[in-house]
Batch of 4 targets.
Target 1
Amino acid sequence: MQTPPVTSRLYSTPFLMLCLSHALFAGSFNMILPELPNYLRSMGGAHYIGLILALFTFTAGVSRPFSGKLTDTIGRIPVMYFGVFACIACGVLYPLVHTVAGFLFIRLIHGFSTGFKPTASAAYVADIVPWNRRGEAMGIMGISSSVGSSATPPIGSWMVQAFGINIMFYFSSFLALLSMLILINLPETLGGKESFRFSHLKVKKEDLFDPLALPAAIVMICCYFSYGVLLTLAPDLSDRLQAGNRGVYFTLFTLSSISTRFFAGRIADRIGRVPVLKFSIYIMILSMLVFAHSVSPAWFYWASILFGLGVGIYFPTISAWTIDLGDPAKRGRALATMYIALEIGIGGGALFAGFLTGAHIDRIPYMFYISGAMCAFAMIYLYRLDRGSLYGLYRQSRNKSIMDK
C-alpha cells in the first residue's frame, strides 16, 4: 500500500482509524483488571496478587527491544497485529485454566500485547503527523486509549455480577478482535520494510536501549511506580472504603485523564516538554498524598481524579519528548526504551505493593507515601537536568530531529 504523506493536517483517516483501534485495544485488557485480584483469591492465590501486574509488565518490558526492532524493520502494522492477537488469545484462554500457576502463566503471555501494540502505534503516529504537532497527536492517542480504558472496567464488573467472570473474559477477546479488524485497512508507513525473518528476532546490544532516550526513561520509571501501586491496591482500598463497583475509581481516573490530554500536548508543543512534565508530576505527588489519607469513598475518588489529571498531562508530553530525544531513523527503539521504563515502573510498583501490604490492608497508606517520594525524585532529576549536560543532549537531539524533518 502507498505510504500516507506527512502534512500539516493532524486528523487524517489513518490517524483516526488508529485511534479507534487503540481505544478498543485498551478497553480489551483494562476491563478485566478490577476483577482479577478477587479471581486470583478464589483460586487460593491471595499471596500472588502483586504478580497480576508484575508478570504482565515483565513480559511487556522484555518484549520491547524485539517490538522496537521489528517496528523499524518489518513495519508498524505487523507488529500491531501481533500485540492485538495476544489479547484475543488470552481472553479465550483465561476461562480454560483453574489453577494459580495456569492463571499466572496467561498473565505472562498477555503482557506481549502491550509490549508490541503501543510501540508500533506510537511510531506510526510519528510517521504521519507533523513534527510540531507530535505532543497534540500523542494527547489524542492517549484520549482514545483512555476512552476505552474508562468505559470497560465498570462493564466488566457488571458482567461478572450478572453473567460470571468467563463472559467478561470472552468479551475482552471480542473487543481485541474488533481492534484488529480496523487495522486491516491501514496503510503501512515504514519505507523499505523487510519481510519477516527469524534473524530479526536476534537482538543486538544496540537494539536493547537507546541512550538518547535515557532522561525520559529515568523519569518514566520513577513516576509510573505510582501507577503500578495504584493498579494493585485500588481494588482492595475500594473494598475497604465500601466504595461499591470496583471499576468506578478507574473510570474517574481515566475520564479526568482525558480532560487534560488534548491541551497538555498542545502546550508541550509550544512551551517545551520539561516544564509541562514538572507540572504534571506536582499533581501526581498531591494525588498520592490524598490516596494515603483516604478515609471515605469521596477522598478515594478525588485522589483518582487528581492522579488522572496528572497522568493525562504527563503521558503525551513524555511520549513526544522521547520521540524528540531519539534518532528519527530509530523511532521504534527510542519508544521501546521509554516503554521498557514504563513496564519497570509499573511492575516494580506492583511487586513492592504486593510484598509490603499482602494481607495487611493497614499498610496501604505507606505505599502511597513511597510512591509520592518516587515522583519527587523524578522532579528533582528534571530540575537537575535543566542545569546539567543532559539537557544539552536533549536540545541537540531535538534540533537534529527537526532538521531531519
Note: The first helix runs from residue 13 to 30.
Target 2
Amino acid sequence: MTVNDAVAKRISTLLKLNNMSQYRLEQQSGIQHGHMQWIMSGKSKTVTLSTAMMIAKGFNMTIIEFLNDDIFCFENLEVEQ
C-alpha cells in the first residue's frame, strides 16, 4: 500500500468515526475539493506533510494523532527510496 493509499484509508475511517462528510472535512481543513478528490481516488501519488497537517486540523486533531494508526507502520507501506 502506498502512503497516499494509507492517508485516504485513514481519512475514510475518521470520516465514519466522526460521522462527518468529505465536504465538511474540506471546509474545516481548507483543502480544495479537487485536491481531496485526487487524494481519495488514489490519483495523487504523494501527500505532503503540510497537506496531512491540514487534514488533521480538519478533524480537530494533531498530526501525531492522525498518523497514530497501524496503517502507517513502515512494514505496511511501499516507501520509495
Note: The chain has one domain: 3-74.
Target 3
Amino acid sequence: MTAKRVEDIYEQHIKSLPDVEQLRLIALIAKKLIETVETATHSQRSLLELEGLGAEIWQGIDAQQYVDELRKEWDHRP
C-alpha cells in the first residue's frame, strides 16, 4: 500500500471519526501488530535445538588430548 493510499484512507474514513474512535482504531492496530510480532518471535528457532548436533564427529576422540594438542599448536604460532 502506498503512502498516498494510506493518506487517502485516513482523509476519507478516519479523520472524521471522533477522537475516542480514532484511539480505539489505534488500539486495534497496535494489538494486531503486537500479536504478529509475538508470533514471529515465538516461531524463531532456539539455539538449544542444536544441542548434540554433530556429536558423531567427536566419537572416539579424547577431549583432554584434543585440547592438549591445540595448546601445543598455540605455542608454535608466531
Note: Helices lie at 3-14, 19-42, 63-75.
Target 4
Amino acid sequence: MAWIPTIPPSEATGPLKEIYDAAVRRAGKVYGILRLMSLNPEVLRASMGLYLSAVRGPSPLPRAVRETLAVVVSATNRCHY
C-alpha cells in the first residue's frame, strides 16, 4: 500500500483513465507502480513511454532478456514489483 495519495482506477478520469485503460489491456490490471504516479498523468505517461521503449522497443537484446534484467534489478533493490 502506498503512503502517498493515489487515484484508484475506479475514480480515474480523462488522460489518467486512458493510461489506466491501456495498462489493463496490456497487463490485465493497474499495478501499484502506476498508481503511485496517478496524481501527475503526464509524468506517468512519460514513465510508461520510457518503460515500453526499453522493454518492447527495438534492441539487440531479446525482450525476455530485458525483462529478466528488470526482474534482477528489482530483486537486487528489494522492490516487490
Note: The mean pLDDT is 92.
